[in-house]
């Protein structure tokens, strides 16, 4: 049996691929467990500076695996959701920037995974659908939260309530996508974005990501700056960045 999740390295960039094409990469317990393991390992890996998340074949992720859902067992359902929430927190709150390369369908929880990433690259073959309402559920894996950061409140409700299928140019225009590229260039473009992120100072990137995720008010934003910037001013990366600027050369950041 093939591994449900594949991990490949391209220098400082890791490519995490959901690899259950026979299930259209539906978020089964096996796939979810593989993603948790992969992201936990990469978060702890100092050589990894950025991550690309994608899927095999023609589907990024078809959503939750309905066949494996507990039947009328709230305790089991909560435990399953809590496991998925751990994965989402690692993607959203972890220090490594994550780029989604959305090949094919990102439906239900697949859409949640894509929009939890820091940057979303798609192609004409990309299709989003919240899908939850079609089976009598509310959106989960923080989709309501991530949508509200990309589209207007009314548009977010239309996407969640009516569950339209949105792809290509429409997804770019509505800001579900950050970049639209030809299908054959999708993964290469996502990796190129991740390479750019990987070249940035990792301490500053991690603190900036946390700042943008958690600050809900001006006071919280300014407080986070006081804590984070004071640490960065005393970092080796800042010393290297300042020296490189004065010497008119490219800096080499080490995450220290």
TrEMBL record:
InterPro entries: ClpP/crotonase-like_dom_sf, Enoyl-CoA_hyd/isom_CS, Enoyl-CoA_hydra/iso, Enoyl-CoA_hydra_C. Keywords: Isomerase. One of its GO terms (molecular function) is isomerase activity. It comes from the Bacteria. CDD domains: crotonase-like (cd06558). Belongs to the enoyl-CoA hydratase/isomerase family. This is Enoyl-CoA hydratase/isomerase family protein. It comes from Enterovirga aerilata.
């Amino acid at each position: 049996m093939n591994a449900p999740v594949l991990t490949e390295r391209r220098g400082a960039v890791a490519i995490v691929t959901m690899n259950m094409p026979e299930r259209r990469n539906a978020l089964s317990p096996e796939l979810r467990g593989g993603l948790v393991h992969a992201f936990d390992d990469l978060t702890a890996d100092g050589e990894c500076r950025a991550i690309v998340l994608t899927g095999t074949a023609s589907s990024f992720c078809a959503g939750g695996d309905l066949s494996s859902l507990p039947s009328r067992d709230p305790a089991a359902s909560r435990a399953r959701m809590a496991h998925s929430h751990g994965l989402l927190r690692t993607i959203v709150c972890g220090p490594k920037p994550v780029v989604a390369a959305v090949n094919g369908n990102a439906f239900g929880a697949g859409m949640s995974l894509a929009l939890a990433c820091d940057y979303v690259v798609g192609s004409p073959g990309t299709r989003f659908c919240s899908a939850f309402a079609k089976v009598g559920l509310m959106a989960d894996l923080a989709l309501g939260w991530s949508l509200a950061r990309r589209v207007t409140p009314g548009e977010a409700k239309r996407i969640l309530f009516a569950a339209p299928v949105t792809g290509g140019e429409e997804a770019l225009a509505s800001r579900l996508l950050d970049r639209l590229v030809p299908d054959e260039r999708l993964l290469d473009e996502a990796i190129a974005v991740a390479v750019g992120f990987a070249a940035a100072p990792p301490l500053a990137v991690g603190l900036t990501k946390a700042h943008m995720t958690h600050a809900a008010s001006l006071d919280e934003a300014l407080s986070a700056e006081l804590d984070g910037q004071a640490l960065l001013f005393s970092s080796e990366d800042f010393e290297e960045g300042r020296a490189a600027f004065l010497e008119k050369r490219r800096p080499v950041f080490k995450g220290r």
